[in-house]
Amino acid sequence: MTSDEVFYYADEFNLSWLPTLRKMWSPIGQQIMIRTPGQNRTHYGIGAVNYFTGETLVIVREHKRRLEMAELLLLLLEQQPDQTIYVVWDNASTHRDGAVEAVLKDAKGRLVLLYLPTYSPWLNPIEMLWRHFRREVTHCEFFVSMQELTAATLDFFARYNLAPNRVRSLIGAIP
């Protein structure tokens, strides 16, 4: 890569108001109770990670449609106004349509989209960042509101943008 090029991996994740559950320690004979909101709501995190710097860009939206994918690409173009941006993501139908194609066309060669094979999440390193996010933020945690969960999500990525080498380590960019 040259100094006027940047390389991102991008993807989406579900942000469910119901806590994600995992195994946890408890004294013998005592069961840990995790509160739930009773009724689920789901928002979606849509994000990208710069493979070489560890910088992340994550937005949270109520939907993960083509318009939201186009919004992410526009934000990347705004963030990198003088560079060619390579984005690697999966073959989801939301990654290929008129809204995305319009952003691609308007970028006039500054945006290059690369597609991973179908059903191969292990090829996208951002999945490791999503996994770490779940461990730290949503596993076995109750949030009073969807707004509180969204704030905790955005806070996680803001904190990790202050520690880009940690992000690079999580995604396998550094050993």
Structure commentary:
With 175 residues, the chain is an alpha/beta fold. The protein has a single domain (5-170), classed as Nucleotidyltransferase, domain 5 (2-Layer Sandwich), CATH 3.30.420. It is built from five helices and five strands, in the order E-E-E-H-E-H-E-H-H-H. The chain has helices spanning 66-79, 98-106, 126-138, 146-161, 164-170, and strands at residues 5-16, 42-50, 56-61, 84-89, 111-115.
Summarize the structure in short.
This protein has 175 residues and is α/β, with parallel strands linked by helices.
Tell me how many strands there are.
5
Strand content: 15-25%
Helix/strand order, N-terminal first: EEEHEHEHHH
Strand order across the biggest sheet? 3-2-1-4-5
Shape: globular
CATH architecture label name = 2-Layer Sandwich
What is the overall pLDDT average? 90
CATH fold name? Nucleotidyltransferase, domain 5
What is the highest CATH level, the class?
A: Alpha Beta
Summed up, the domain count is 1
Alpha carbon gap, first and last residue: 20 Å
CATH homologous group name: Ribonuclease H-like superfamily/Ribonuclease H
Radius of gyration: 18 Å
Largest sheet: number of strands, sense, barrel closure: 5 strands, mixed
Q: Considering DSSP H and I runs of 4 or more, what fraction of the residues is helical?
A: 25-40%
Poorly predicted tracts of residues:
none
SS content category: alpha/beta
The count of helical stretches stands at 5
